[in-house]
Design brief:
By secondary structure, the chain is of the alpha/beta class. 40% of the residues lie in helices and 17% in strands. Helix 4 crosses helix 13, helix 9 packs across helix 10 and helix 9 packs across helix 15. The chain starts with 13 loop residues before the first strand and ends with a helix.
Length: 406
């Protein structure tokens, strides 16, 4: 048998330029722009060929080095190192967390859901308090940016409805690597960072919905195109991508698949503009508008279960998919409590609570969806792309503001 030659390690370098005005780094791998899958693959292959010429390595090893870019992941971030091993919840971890006494959780999930999650954790791990700080995703992002720029490390665990935030935080080197056992065992590869710095804690949809007291089922919109019908003028409410991570992601997916022309026409419908993705369902329930163009599916499902006059619509073009990851910060003031809380968040127990109490969707295969729901696998969805949202977020906000004048 011939002697095996060890191939050198190849790294695809990343150039960074920083947009200080908006606090987001703009990342582009050298020689690679974030285009569609086919174009992206062509450019990656070009980069691979160039690396092969320079180093003399095999294509197999070059592909391995580029794996973080080629993976069809929701989190197509640069692979920095091997992910840490799966972390079990041990008596030593629990004891260390109890000594710290609390965990600080910044989140954009609805406050009632966050509070129920906190109470369930506190009941299971007595002596450890959860301090919930809930606000919109963009404000969570801004707050952490301001705190870290001032060397203030107040947050332990964060959840955002804008997955692009985690790409920025990872690139800034402020996330800690920690892989809960359930994430390692059960979660799809495309929903966990290859370096173990974050994973999809919750999944949900941004949907159309209508007030059943104001609109008959046969007259309700069935698609985004239907919202442009003149009969809905002055009767539509929607959220704002400058405030809500959910609406930012939904706006990106819709402009990508339907074009900005859709939004230009929608703006002529005298739309009621609100902030959070939780606001359109509230306006719908109160009868302030008959139809919502976007907003949280889970709010609508909860309201309907409570007997309120609302009904979800899964658009024929597809409903935008939203992913809300969880991650731990390196500078966490309560690192052991943070790890214990992160493990709890991804457990079957917490994921089922999220479904039952929050109307959210889960990637944990041991959970069960509620009766009466349309299974996620049966809904036509639009694909999320956090990398593209991070790249285009500022321009999306600016163009949206110009179109809707808000």
């Amino acid at each position: 048998m011939g002697r095996q030659v060890q191939q050198p390690v190849v790294e695809l370098h990343v150039d960074l330029d920083v947009d200080l005005a908006f606090g987001r780094n703009k990342m582009k791998p050298a020689g690679l722009s974030w285009l569609g899958p086919a174009d992206r693959l062509d450019q990656v292959n070009k980069s691979i060929r160039e690396e092969m010429k320079k180093t003399g390595i095999s294509r197999r090893h070059a592909l391995k080095a580029a794996g973080g870019l080629l993976a069809g992941s929701a989190f197509a971030t640069r692979v920095l190192a091997d992910a840490p091993p799966a972390a079990e919840v041990t008596p030593a971890l629990i004891e260390a967390a109890r000594k710290e006494g609390q965990v600080v959780y910044y989140t954009s999930v609805d406050l009632p859901v966050a509070e129920k999650l906190a109470k369930a954790f506190e009941a299971k791990y007595q002596g450890i308090a959860v301090r919930v700080e809930r606000t919109g995703a963009e404000r969570v992002f801004q707050r952490i940016g301001q705190e870290y720029s001032s060397n203030i490390h107040a947050v332990d665990v964060v959840n955002s409805s804008d997955a692009a935030h985690f790409i920025v935080w990872k690139r800034d080197g402020i996330l800690d690597a920690y892989v809960p056992e359930d994430v390692a065992k059960y979660y799809p590869a495309e929903h966990k960072d290859p370096d173990g710095q974050f994973a999809s804690w919750r999944v949900w949809l941004s949907i159309i919905a209508y007030n059943t007291s104001m609109v008959k089922a046969e007259d309700a919109p069935k698609s985004f195109a239907d919202l442009l019908d003149p009969k809905w003028k002055g009767k539509i409410v929607k959220g704002h991508p400058g405030y809500s991570g959910t609406i930012m992601t939904a706006t990106y997916e819709l402009q990508r698949d339907l074009g900005w022309t859709f939004f230009e026409q929608l703006a002529r419908q005298n739309v009621m503009q609100v902030q959070s993705s939780a606001d359109p369902p509230k306006k719908l329930e109160l009868g302030e508008r008959a139809v919502m163009a976007d907003g949280n599916e889970y709010n609508i499902l909860q309201l309907r279960e409570g007997g309120r006059p609302v009904e979800p619509v899964y658009a024929t073009e597809g409903s935008p998919t939203i992913v809300g990851p969880n991650g731990i910060f390196k500078g966490a003031p309560h690192p052991n409590a943070a790890r214990l809380f992160q493990s709890f968040c991804f457990s079957r127990e917490a994921q089922q609570l999220m479904i039952d109490a929050g109307g959210l969707r889960s990637l944990h295969p041991q959970t069960k969806e509620k009766q009466g729901w349309i299974a996620l696998k049966d809904v036509k969805t639009l694909k999320d792309d956090p990398v593209a949202v991070e790249q285009q977020g500022t321009s999306i906000k600016q163009r949206y503001t110009r179109i809707f004048r808000v």
